[in-house]
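Just curious. Protein, please.
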Amino acid sequence: MDDAQVIEPYRTGICLVGIESATSDALRFLITHCNELQRSFEFELIPLNPGDPLVQQLKAPRAITADAKFNSLVEGFAGRQKAFESRLADAFDLKPCSHPSYVIISLARFTNGFYAWGRNETEIIALGGWERAFAPPSLAEYALTITLRLAASSAVPALESERHLGTLGCLMDFNQSLDTVRFKVLNSFICADCRRVLSAGRGDQAYKDLLLLLGKTWLGESQNALSPAGICRKLGYDLFLTRGIKPSWWETVSGKLLGDAVTETIKLVAALLLALLLLRLGLKAAGG
């Protein structure tokens, strides 16, 4: 497809279920920051109906069996959610949300071991099987990459038929378990076959934009307070230290100590430079 034909970005509604506040805040920031970085995809955080039966099941501590009853809940979610959003929009006299598909990021766990499951316009990311050994990268980076994969395949449904059994580090790799997902998270790669289908469906700019987001160089360093990684650290989630579903006590303390150490080092260097400058000026004055 000619890029000139693709005018509107593909928008995905994003819902978070049962995720701790520090992790949730960082993840929501990273997802919405993706909107600033490119124009092919948009991600819209939406308010969930807490009483929705699917939401209630995803919050439950027990593993979920993806049987006919559960699949029926997933299939009907988009209709129920859109009706809920419409009621909210009317109550506040606002324009309703506009997205053809949903991605629900949760800490649910499926009995079949799958980490992603979907029906109709709704895809579920289930990170309840997360283990600390899966990091690096962090759980937030896993969730972000899987969200990009699901958004891409919703925008271009033909991509689903291109998913491959072998692991290439490609966004569309089929990964049987969460531990092997790390290769697509750590890489910024879309294979030639998937690129061809993606570009045919949404234009080559969509391919370029996905590579940009997957590369994650835009995250920056956590010691830079203005970088996305630095903002995440201020929100309580250090992308480069956190290994669990949420930051542990030690990871929180370590991140603060590291940040304080960098700040104090900068202050010390500045003081030394000032002292040297004053000494030099003093010597010049004495010799002058």
Summary: The chain has two domains: 7-247, 252-288. The mean pLDDT is 88. The longest strand covers residues 10-17.
